[in-house]
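User:
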Amino acid sequence: MIEPGYVRLMARYNEEMNARWLETAARLDDQERRADRSAFFRSIHGTFNHLLWADRVWLWRLAGAEEPTHPRDKSASFIDDFDELSALRVRTDREIVDWAETVTAAFLAAPITWFAGTPREFISPQALRVVHMFNHQTHHRGQIHALLTGFGEDTGATDIWTVWS
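Assistant: Predicted structure:
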């Protein structure tokens, strides 16, 4: 399905894109970041929050980090202060990169039984959960990108080879 190199690449890509989005969002004022722009999580701030909350959950599930206690249905209000949100985002991205460096082919192939917010039990290789985490990140970063560009902001190139090494 995937290999450890993919995990490392996607972790670095996630870190780079989040850094760009945070830098761009910091040029907006708090009212603009919180403006209801009819996105799924309403605003730039809300979408950043949901994505950060979900990544903390994935770090708990995949890497044994501390389990978030903030409720899922309130993920858009995870961190109120933008500076605090930004700092935790940067720290979380570094944790994801550090975790990615430890991922092995055996870890990715290992079967795992889990529940995905439903009463339904899933059995899949860990790789499927890892792919989902990166897909989820890309999905919501795309929403943030659209919201930022809606304010006339330029985020630069978003191609994955910007982090390829």
